[in-house]
Structure formats: C-alpha cells, structure tokens
Amino acid sequence: MRITGISTHVVGTPWRNLTYVQVHTDEGLTGVGETRMLGRTEALLGYLREAEVNHISGSDPFRTEDLVRRMKYGDYGRAGEIVMSGIACVETACWDIKGKALGVPVWQLLGGNVTEAVPAYANGWYTTERTPDAYHRAARDVMARGYRALKIDPFGTGHLELSHAETRYAVSLIEAVRDAIGPEAELMLEMHGRFAPATAVRLAREMAPFRPAWLEEPVPPENLKALAKVADKVEMPVATGERIHDRIEFRELFESQAADIVQPDLGHLGGIAETRKLAATAETHYTLVAPHNVGGPVLTAASLQVGFATPNFKVLEHFNDFADAEIRKVVRGAPEVDPATGCFPLSREPGLGVELDTDAAAEFPQQRAHFDLWAEGWETRDPSGAGR
Fold it and tell me: CDD domains of this UniProt entry (predicted)?
C-alpha cells in the first residue's frame, strides 16, 4: 500500500480553525488526522504542501516511524510547532488507515486496552457573563450533562501579578463553581501561564479551600526553574506541557520533578505514537497524562485511542459539547461522553472510529480566527466582543 496524496480541509469558527488532513492510498483506504493552530493555519497548510511532495506521497502508511523520522529530520531545520503539527495530522491519518486495513481500533495496535472508559472533563463551558451567578448556572449545566469534572481560568486578563480586588473576584467565581458542582466533582484550575511564581503560589493558596484537582501552567512555559519554584510551595498537583511540541523536550521537565501531570497535545506533538511514547516515559517518573485537547472530534478520537491503551492516562479535556458544538457534525461517529458515567466509552470501530464528512466541513469555511487570552472578554471565545 502506498500514499497517493493528501487533501486538507479547514473548519472555521471565530476563535479556532481546525485543520483536517486526509491521507489517500492506492488501495482506496483514506485516513484522517486533525490539529488546531492558533494564528498559523496558513503556515501549516503551506508546510503540508511541501511535505506532500518531499516526504508523504509514495510512502507506506504502515511505516509511520520512518515517515515521522523523515518529516521531522529530513528537512534539516529544527522542527517546531508547525512541522510537528503537520506530522501529527499525517501520522494520525496513517494509524487510521492501519486500523481500517486490519479491521481493528487503533488502541488494539498500541498494545490493547487497559480500560473500558476514559474520564472526560469539560472546557469551553463558561462562555457567559463573568459573574458568580452566571458561572454557577453554567457549571450546574455541565454537571447536568453527566460530567464529573470541569476546568476554568477565573483570572480575567491577569498577567504576572493580580491585584487584591481581582484576586477576591477570582475567588468568588471559584467559590460559585464549587458550590454548583458539589464536593465530589473535580475542579481543574487553569492559569494559562499568566503569573510570576510568587503570584501563582499566592493564588494557589487562596484557591486551596476549593480543592482544585490540579494547578495548570501557573507560570509561562519557557522557564522550568520558575515552575519548580511553584511546585515546591504548593500542595496541589501541578500540570503543564501543552506548549511543548517535541517529546524529547519533556526530558528536562521530568528531571525537574516539577509536574505531576503532563498535558501533551497530540495534534502538536507529532501524533499518536509520539504521545504514547511520551506517556511511557511519564510512567517511569510516576507522572500522569491528561492531554490538552482543544481540537474537534478527530483529535478527540485520536487522543482517546492513546487513552484506552495507556495505564497512567488520567482524563481527557473536551470542548465540543460547549464551544462550537455544531462542528461535531463534520465527523460521523464523533466521540460522546456517556452522561451516566462522565466518561468516553471504549470504541471498537476500526481505525479512529470516525469519518470526516467533507460536505459538512465545507459549511464551516476557514475564518480569521483569533484568540487573545489577555483581552477583556476572552472567555466568551468571541473575538468581536473581546476587547476589539
């Protein structure tokens, strides 16, 4: 079997463009992969056009290790977010082809399942007025859908520090959310790399009474010593890793022991095998894996294939019940959270278990998507109302 070419489809919303890549073969099988780029979609498409000629066309889709190696190192320049995201789309699609050709789900090819279900947590649910009452209502709606966990960044446009008044307001938002979801549900606290270490530590202590399940990206991601400084002074687990695009670059993070949970984005890290390899390394450091997943149904399905086969997989992020829920129709067989358990049940369909509907995808043309975490109103994920 050989790859005859690829086709790309961009599904657009005001705050995110989702890039789908179909890999076509001479035996009629087609696989699909996906990533979400922030402000770099055209760069990704440009890279894929060159990579199709230089590396992809004519390749054997079963030889994913060889294809990834050539795409990553065959152009000599160091691979960054754009290249690793392009690799992820193609590599994921090849796994989809392998599973379809063999008639088994991808998790079966990764060593078999270790669980019958992967827990989910909700994100994108607080696209509402930024008040305790509005957040309380929105959080109750999340629980009503069967979720047992949710994540929130309550810090507005905070950057490096947060005033006393802004701190008290953030606390009031978290207090309202915890009241809405009850004592048993998990509440993940997101900081989006906003703060200096001292501020992150202070805020973590302010939030401690509401028992966050983790403290996510408390400081900007470039300085691991700053992250370690926070980890040494807080009692809650620390999570990070969505902005690391090469599993080799996680080495220093593991050595620092600064993270209890790593959050690779499969769509930026090079795909399914790269994420599974990272998870195995994390396991040797007694570290859990909870992938960043702001993509659509295909990226969710791919992350789940890894989750079903990974012993130290904690939980998977999910936007698609809340922000841009209508895009689910671009895929047939989109993963859904079981409202009785708050989990994604084990998929037994071949490959990723999903199919891209290109006609439906065409109903969501590429947009000038923009997402600015330091603009007022960012949490609505509506650029027209976010300080512009």
Answer: MR_like
